[in-house]
Each structure stands twice: as structure tokens, then as C-alpha cells.
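Morning, I've got a small favour to ask if you have a moment. It would help a lot if you went through both lines with me. I owe you a coffee for this, so here goes:
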Amino acid sequence: MIRTTLLSCTVALSVAPVTAMASHGYDDANDTAGGVVRMYDSVPGVEDLRHDLMPEKPRRTRGIEIRAAPQPAAPRYSTPASVSTPAPAAVPVQARPVEPVAAPVARDPAPAVAPAPAPEPAPEPVQAQAAPAKAPDAIGFRIQFAFDSAAIQPGSRPFLDRLGELMREEADLSLVVEGHTDATGSDAYNAALSHRRAVAVAGYLAQVWNVEATRLSVAGKGETEPLTRDPEAPANRRVQFRVR
């Protein structure tokens, strides 16, 4: 009977100088740095990946310009010719006698009052600014592979497609693809399996998204960098991507 259990593997891409090409066509990365890994359990957006892998670049947004509708011109009306009317006859006005006005009584001026000093403004409260979140050292996908195989399952391809879109937009981005396994099996077996799966992921990016082989490095980490305290936990199977 054929065993069809699915295993998940995480691939890590990192940017590094290109050295001698291995037989599979991709540079073998030798760095073993672990660091902080951001795992994506759902398909990320291209901007999310750009923010994690290229934090120095601003996020891209789309601007919307709203133009006001033109206002209708005010109607013009002709001014009618003025009509002359006769002025009314003047009516004689009788003058009234002028009453005498009493002279004003002089008063002493009121003493000047000094204005009260303005209160000193209260100091503005200083708000502590939160430190910007540190970008992860690598991102990870739980790529699904068939049992004891490097064949990528269809359900995992959308993860790699988002990464392919980013690499198509950012021509200067180079990555290291790292395959990771759990501690089930021998060290040699896990190292070889993780390397095969890293090569498969790099091959998908090259074939489907036309990413140059010189921009991709591969590394089989095996069981050497577990994410959990239990090295045999399935969560340790992953493919990570690290900027070189």
C-alpha cells in the first residue's frame, strides 16, 4: 500500500554574493544564521513581503484624484433703461428754537490699574514614541510536499506566486531559499530532503516567474534550526526566504 501522508516544509530566501554554481543551477548558501523568522500561515500580499524583506523601501499606495464638476456660468440679463420720474415738490420746514446746553463738569481721571501678569503656559506632555518594529531576519512558508518528495503541492503555489511577483518588481532582490525539516529521521536524510525541497522551490520561481538563477541561492538546513522546543514537531517543517 502507498503511503500518501503530506509533509510541510518551509523555504527561506536570503540575499548573498554569488559564488560557484552547484549542479542544480543555484548557488549553495553556507550561512547558518537563524534569527527571527516571520511565518505566514495564509497567503501574504506583495506589500507585506516587501515590508519584511525590504524594510528600507516605502509601501506602495494608489492615489485617487477627485475633480470637481464644472460650475454653470451665471446667466446674463440686460439692464432696462432707466425711467426718469419728476422730483417731488419741496416742503417748507419750520426751524425750532435751540435750547442752551449745560457745560460738562470736569472730573478727576481714575487711577491707572496695572494689568495682571499672564499665567505661564503649562508644559506640554511628552509622549513616548514606540520603537519601530524590527524587520524579521527571514520569512517562512509552510510549503506542502508529498511524502518523501520534493514535489510542491498545488495548494502551496499561491505563496510562491506572491514571492515571484515581488521578485519580478524588485530586480535587485536576491534570496536564499532554505529548506527545513523536523528531527524525525536521520540527520543525513533530513539534510538531503530539505536541500531537494529548497531546490524545488527555487526552480518554481525560476520557471514560473523567470527569476534568474543568479538571484537564488539554496540551502538544506535539515533539522538544525527548529522553530519549537520540540524538534520533532511538524511545525518545524518549513521553507524560509532570507535576503542575502
Q: What stands out?
A: Helices lie at 46-53, 157-169, 187-209.
